[in-house]
Amino acid sequence: MAAVLRRATVSVLRRSTPHVRCISSTPSLLRDASQNDGPIALNWFENAFLVGGSAIASILDPRRADMIAVLGETTAGPALPRLRDRMLESPEGRRVLRDRPLINTQTVDMEKLRTLPEGTFGHTYVTWLDRCGVTPDTRDRVMYITDPELAYVMQRYRECHDFYHAICGLPVDVFSELAIKYFEFANMGLPVSALSAAFGPLRLTAKKRERLFKEFVPWALRCGSSSKSLITVYWEERWETNTEELKKELGIWDPPPVRWSKLLTEAAREAARRAQREAAAPGSTSGPSV
Amino acid sequence: MHSKAGHAISFASRRALCKTPSLSYSTRLLPFTRGNHTQPQPQQPPQSTNSRSDSTTHFGFRTVPTEEKESLVKGVFSSVASSYDVMNDAMSFGVHRLWKDEYVGTILNPGRRGPVKCIDVAGGTGDIALRILDHAREKYADRDTSVCVVDLNPDMLREGETRFKKTMYHNTSQVSFRVANAQELPPNEFPDNTFDLYTIAFGIRNCTDVPAVLREARRVLKPGGTFACLEFGKVGNPLFAQVYESYSFSIIPLMGHILAGDRASYQYLVESIRRFPSQPDFARMISEAGFATGEMREGKGGAWRDMWGGIASVHMGVKM
């Protein structure tokens, strides 16, 4: 039985090796070669060097998402096995670990999600993506964790980050990112979220920092610690679930109101335009236009 | 797929798997895991110079089809072009400037015997070219020395042009920039017997066919012209070599990842240094290409001169 399970795991891992595009501009031949090369084991000195280097690089330029990713991998420590065990304790989490689904535009049918009725989680997610102008394809592959299962847990943690944004209804500015980091730390306990939460506010103005700590951090800590462990959620099975029901099931409530840089009507207008196009030309395939 | 009982069994066996020591677990499932600092033994592909379609060559420690190496190298340098100078400073702690100053100032000493027509191959960002022109001007009041900067990669050349725009040589006949392949310099642009000095600094190890580069160098040099090459070499002292190796393979790829967001290119860099022939072997290649070198030893009067114990070395030859 164990041998069968092991073989199944290996085949799923090999099949689902992602070709996620790295943020770096490495030429494709070299990048594909290094992606397929397998993870890199670090000794204690190299690990410490990467922790220090990626921490400084992240503070100096918070848009270096690849550095925050490296910081997460190198500081994971015992928290990652604990997270994996949390997944193993729930049937849904076990299904995720068995299937090892990945989230990018190749594995998730964005067009299908756009056609879902409003109020469903899938529709909320795609609307959020369009509104913020982000895509799930910019997540780096885990490089510095050698255990394949823990590497997958880390990859899943990284890729589900956008879902937390979508379900809490927060945009992608520094302010909301920090609120989500506090939320993640209270919910899942990885050191990298604590580090981001601790040092990130240094980049905010004093007024924003005050608002963060007065309104958002209490919400994040209370909501994060009382809700279900979000790493165990099989989000891909919930596309058609009503978002409010999902929030009730997970134990999440809305954060204080925050200003969005793009108005909600933009997304609805895009959807209306798309529906109009489809009605005018039924059966024609239209690619994502946003 | 599983019954409830089946779920319980699979859960139990997975927990059993998790209790296995992680090292044996990971090496069983992931034979591709490699240590950051313990690189695999470099494979020994045939170093072929004829163009059979199935011939391969080395690209760092990888084996790649010969035709691909050029585009891979081009891609590496497109990727690093904008951060090239910053990374050089970071990786060598600024020491590369000392090497280049000694190379141009002391060893090449352009302008001592009149204006020099130079070709700086793999000259990309213009480090050496600028030093040559400044040295000739400052030491010998020479404004007729000229350098033609040649590189395979247009992005690197663009960086070089930007650098030169900040100097007095911009828009003068003293500097020009051409995209060309060192193995095949186009004869209409680079006729035979044109240059007094051919220099290639930290570039020749990236070339697929080193003997071809040497042949082209001999072709475009005037009789009596100088071939000079500054390149990474092998460190003699075993203790220092160990320290250097640990630093190269442990720190440099990580630095590349942190500073430039590009681990793979810097991994290639340190692997390509390992791959390059040792100083005596390279000196022999230069001699076989038709250059008069010093004796086959290190030091003044020898075929090469080491810097910093052999981390970098300068090879010189005169066209016979």
From TrEMBL, chain A:
Coiled coil: none
Cofactor: Zn(2+)
Topology in the lipid bilayer: Peripheral membrane protein
Chief place of localization: mitochondrion
GO cellular component terms attached to this protein's record: extrinsic component of mitochondrial inner membrane
Entry keywords, A to Z: Lyase, Membrane, Metal-binding, Mitochondrion, Mitochondrion inner membrane, Ubiquinone biosynthesis, Zinc
Region ranges (Disordered): 271-290
Domain of life: Eukaryota
Reactions catalysed, as given in the entry: a 4-hydroxy-3-methoxy-5-(all-trans-polyprenyl)benzoate + H(+) = a 2-methoxy-6-(all-trans-polyprenyl)phenol + CO2
Cell compartments where the protein resides: Mitochondrion inner membrane
Pathway(s) it belongs to: Cofactor biosynthesis; ubiquinone biosynthesis
Binding site for Zn(2+): 161-162, 165, 177
Gene Ontology molecular function, alphabetical: 4-hydroxy-3-methoxy-5-polyprenylbenzoate decarboxylase activity; zinc ion binding
Protein family membership: Belongs to the COQ4 family.
Record note on quaternary structure: Component of a multi-subunit COQ enzyme complex, composed of at least COQ3, COQ4, COQ5, COQ6, COQ7 and COQ9.
Functional summary from the UniProt entry: Lyase that catalyzes the C1-decarboxylation of 4-hydroxy-3-methoxy-5-(all-trans-polyprenyl)benzoic acid into 2-methoxy-6-(all-trans-polyprenyl)phenol during ubiquinone biosynthesis.
Protein's name in the database: 4-hydroxy-3-methoxy-5-polyprenylbenzoate decarboxylase
Source organism: Botryobasidium botryosum (strain FD-172 SS1)
Top-level taxonomy: Eukaryota, Fungi, Dikarya, Basidiomycota, Agaricomycotina
UniProtKB/TrEMBL annotation, chain B:
Catalytic reaction annotation: a 2-methoxy-6-(all-trans-polyprenyl)benzene-1,4-diol + S-adenosyl-L-methionine = a 5-methoxy-2-methyl-3-(all-trans-polyprenyl)benzene-1,4-diol + S-adenosyl-L-homocysteine + H(+)
Class in the EC hierarchy, top level: transferase
CDD domains noted in UniProt: AdoMet_MTases
SUPFAM superfamilies on file: S-adenosyl-L-methionine-dependent methyltransferases
InterPro entries per the UniProt record, alphabetical: SAM-dependent_MTases_sf, UbiE/COQ5_MeTrFase, UbiE/COQ5_MeTrFase_CS
Gene3D superfamilies documented for this protein: Vaccinia Virus protein VP39 (3.40.50.150)
Record's compositionally biased regions (Polar residues): 48-58
Region (Disordered), start-end ranges: 32-63
Membrane topology designation: Peripheral membrane protein
EC number: 2.1.1.201
Protein's recorded name: 2-methoxy-6-polyprenyl-1,4-benzoquinol methylase, mitochondrial
An example molecular function term from Gene Ontology annotations: 2-methoxy-6-polyprenyl-1,4-benzoquinol methyltransferase activity
Organism phylogeny: Eukaryota, Fungi, Dikarya, Basidiomycota, Agaricomycotina
Protein family according to the UniProt entry: Belongs to the class I-like SAM-binding methyltransferase superfamily. MenG/UbiE family.
Cell compartments where the protein resides: Mitochondrion inner membrane
Gene symbol of the encoding locus: COQ5
Binding of S-adenosyl-L-methionine, residues: 125, 151, 181-182
Pathway(s) served: Cofactor biosynthesis; ubiquinone biosynthesis
Cellular component terms per the entry's GO annotation: extrinsic component of mitochondrial inner membrane
